[in-house]
Amino acid sequence: MSQTKNIYFNYFRIPSDQLRYKQWMEKCHTVHLLKKDLAILYKNYRVCGVHFENNMFLNPSSRNRLTMNDVPTIFSATRLRDAYG
């Protein structure tokens, strides 16, 4: 019998702060989105919570609130598999 983990992911808005939004776009390798209006990105785009380290959350158990200055850092398939099975 195999066991599977039920994992629920939270999604986070692109920051409305100009500097942080540029950092997020660079880290996510989505610099092509820098051409879009920031208000549109903030309203319509999200980054999945799996791309953030546990220590970047105010509440690591539910992972639904990021600390103020964090940027996504996890993009390796190996690191994602290790973190979420």
UniProtKB/TrEMBL annotation:
Residues 1-75 form the THAP-type domain. SUPFAM superfamilies: Glucocorticoid receptor-like (DNA-binding domain). Keywords: DNA-binding, Metal-binding, Zinc, Zinc-finger. GO terms for molecular function: DNA binding; zinc ion binding. It comes from the Eukaryota. The keyword Zinc-finger applies. The keyword Zinc-finger applies. This is 52 kDa repressor of the inhibitor of the protein kinase-like. It comes from Sipha flava.
